[in-house]
Amino acid sequence: MLTVQNLSVHYRGIEALTAVSLTLRPGEWVGLIGPNGAGKSTLVKAILGLTPYRGKILLNGAALKRQRSQVAYVPQRSQLDWDYPITAWNVVMMAQTRALGWGRSPNSKAKKLVSAALDRVEMLPLKNRSIGQLSGGQQQRVFLARALAQQPNLFLLDEPFSGIDKKTEAVMLSIFADLSQQGKTLLVCSHEWGEALNRYDRLLLLNRRVLANDTPQAVMTMENIQQAYGANIQALHNQNGMPFVC
Ligand SMILES: Nc1ncnc2c1ncn2[C@@H]1O[C@H](COP(=O)(O)OP(=O)(O)OP(=O)(O)O)[C@@H](O)[C@H]1O
To answer: Which residue windows are transmembrane per the record (predicted)?
Structure first.
């Protein structure tokens, strides 16, 4: 269980997060939503220990900073340098290299984990392909495989459904359902709207602070949306009563 207590993050004069408290339980699939600049990436960076913060972040009651291997991160595609000359296999092996120690050759256990992870995302046949020569959806699957091979308890995913086709979406949804069944926790930063949000067990609506933290139906009310995105946003309700923005 991940517990965030009274978390605040300041960047030179900007208050990116204020007094954020939340709990992520084993097996939960939680969507982290909010407007641009709401602090979603900042929250993820704080959990990963990539930015200084005030407050506490605990995993199963102990400080997370001593258990970083229990957290895997799948970055947004736009944040990566796709010209870097590395094969799909070696991207996934990176998680193992960290566990084995730099400079150590991968052992057979590490190779099996990498092979199984690439197979799970249906990318084993393309394992020797350079990452820059893969499609966007294939790249996304390789980075998901890297996270799987790390065998963490908590997955942090930054817009995993952005710019992917139905095939990659189906592969990812099936993996997320398996992970959830295994008691793994998934926190997904998302800019999705409408029906797509129903796939989450819970939504956290963020805008510097937690504005709502409940089921998708309970969070996506007109009042909450206007509070987070601004009073003059044009929102419509679909047939199921779920607001979407046009
Ligand atoms: N390294 C930084 N230095 C200074 N300010 C920063 C830095 N990173 C983020 N910020 C600011 O902190 C606030 C939160 O940014 P953050 O990237 O966490 O938002 P976000 O919700 O992930 O946005 P988006 O949906 O656009 O990705 C913004 O005002 C942003 O300009």
So the answer is: none
Please, which residues bridge with residue 157 across strands? 74, 188
Which atom of ligand 1 approaches the CA of 76 most closely?
Answer: 27
Please state the pTM of the whole predicted model: 0.90
pLDDT digits (tens, 9 = 90+) for 130-160: 998 998 889 999 999 999 999 999 999 999 9
Torsions phi, psi for 224 (to 5 deg): -65, -40
pLDDT in tens, 3-26: 999 999 999 889 999 999 999 999
* Ligand 1 nearest-atom number relative to CA 42: 18
Closest CA to 36 of 236, 228, 246: 228
Number of structural domains (the chain) is 1
Residue nearest to atom 9 of ligand 1 (CA): 42
User: CATH code at 77?
Assistant: 3.40.50.300
Pocket test for ligand 1, best of 7, 20, 36 (most atoms within 8 A of CB): 36
**Do 210 and 226 meet the contact criterion of CB atoms below 8 Å apart?**
no
The complex's ipTM?
Answer: 0.98
What is the position in ligand 1's atom list of the atom closest to the CA of 51? 1
Q: Domain containing 88: what range? A: 2-245
d(CA 164, CA 146): 18
